[in-house]
Every structure is written in C-alpha cells, then in structure tokens.
Amino acid sequence: MNQGELIINDERCFRIDGFERYHVSESGRVYRTETGKPRTWRTKGRIYISENQVHFDTRNNSVRRGYVSLTDTEGKLHNVEVAPVVALAFGVIKEKLNKKKQAIVFKDGDIRNLHFTNLEVGERKPSNSKLSKEDVKHIKKQIKMGIPLRKIAWFFSVSEMQINRIKTGENWGTGKRKIKAPQAPFEIEDGRMRKYIATFNKKKTATKVKKPFAVKRNAQKPTDNTIVGIVDGYKLWIKHSNITRARQLVDKLNDYFFNDTKKPIKESGGIFKDWTEK
Fold it and tell me: What DSSP string runs through 183-222?
C-alpha cells in the first residue's frame, strides 16, 4: 500500500494534497482521517473520523459541480471542487492543468458521478456551453432583427445577460466587447474636452449656429439638471444631478468654446479633473 493510502468502505483512498487531514476515495467520497488533536474514546481505533458531504447546487435546472468544505491546518474553511481532487489523487491528471484551456470533464455527462474512471482532462468549454454554435447563429440573427433580448433569452432558456454578452461579442466572439467608444461630433483639439463632449447627447441643427451653455433646472426635482448648448451646428445636452458642479462645468465649457483664448483644460482647477462625474 502506498504512503497515504487507506482502504475505507472497500474503496482505495488517498490523502488530499494541501489538506492532509482528509482522504478522498476512488468514487469521490471525502473522509476526515485526522484531527490534529488527540483522538477521543469515540474515534480511537477507527480508520476515519467522519465523512464530509459533497454538495451539488442546482441552478437554472442544471446540476453544478460538486464541492466539499475542508479545513486547512490553520483552521480556515475552504470550498473545494471534488472532481479535480479525485483526478489528481488517482492519476487522471498527469501534469498541471492549463485552467484557461483545460478542465476535468465527465465521460458519461453525469456531474454526480465522481468515480475516477469517469473523469478525464478535456477542453474547457465557454461559460455559455449550454448553447450550440447553431443556437448562437440563430441568436445573432434575431438580435440583428431587433427582437428583444429577454424574448430571445426565454426561447433558448438562458439569462438575458447571456444574450447581451453574445450581442456585445464578449461571449462567442473575440472576447472583447464590440461597443465603439463615443466620439465627439466635431473636431476638438483638447483631448480631455473631446472625451467629455463625446458623452453628451447630440443633435445636428439646421444651420451652424452657436449658443452658450446653460443649466436648465427641473423645479419639481432639484437633482434633475440639464447642461445644454449649441456648438458648431450641434445641440449638446447632458444630465447632471449636482447644480453647483453643473454651473461650474457650464462656465468651463463656455470658457473653452466661446472664449477666443481657449486655455488648455489642464490649467483649470481641480474641480474639473473628472469630466464624467455627475
């Protein structure tokens, strides 16, 4: 018998790396075999002290992987996934897994079957693996048709967030969101001012008129303020909850767009460090 190997309930068991007080069996059962303290009369002479229950959560009508609660030598509690522990103990994993590309998979598809003969190293599937490539093709077509995301999500039995991630390209895409950065409607030399104006709502006017920025207030709601102005034939407006900061920003905007000197933004006071703060 190898060092650290025990026979418990007619199954081979090996000590768990990193949690030496526990053994895991060939079928994925976890036993506490040591306490770190002298045994009591109740456990004296027994092979193991207790069995730790493996928990399988069910979410969205699907079974999640099994986890077990283990205590390390310092007394800290950890939730540990059982399948990799079994795979490592019984030689299913020959070398360290590439967690980004590899995962422990179940040959018969039953996540509850933790026997080492049912485990193997496979390719890690995307988080939305419930969907096939054909499903995703249909989803993308429906998104282009303008069908509400919640309806698409209901039809394919996934979350609306899942569909939104497909829409933006975060899932089943390049891994990066395909949301273009906002752009200012006209050329602005100062980079910080250009980024701030890009956050405004904009509408082209009939002629190239200019109108200084001002704050429009909602008398019924003190936090409902709108900064509005017209620059180079574009009406620009944005909401702002703080009237004091809104007025300060209006002064800065007018100083930049309607003052011939156009001082650089970096020379302004600290109150304008974050243009997007509301």
Answer: --SS--SSHHHHHHHHTSEEEE-SS---EEEEEEEETTEE
**Using one digit for the tens of pLDDT, what is the confidence trace for 139-159?**
888 888 888 887 777 666 677
Q: How many CB atoms lie within 10 A of CB 46?
A: 10
pTM (whole model) above 0.70: no
CA dihedral 65, 69, 71, 72 (to 10 degrees): 10
Identify whether the C-beta of residue 14 lies closer than 8 Å to the C-beta of residue 4: yes
Cβ atoms within 10 A of the Cβ of 214, count?
15
The label of the residue with tokens 């590439």 reads: 98
Please report how many Cα atoms fall inside a 13 Å half-sphere around the Cα of residue 190, on the Cβ side.
15
Q: At what angle do helices 160-168 and 149-156 cross, to 10 degrees?
A: 110
CA–CA separation, 121 and 127 (whole Å): 17
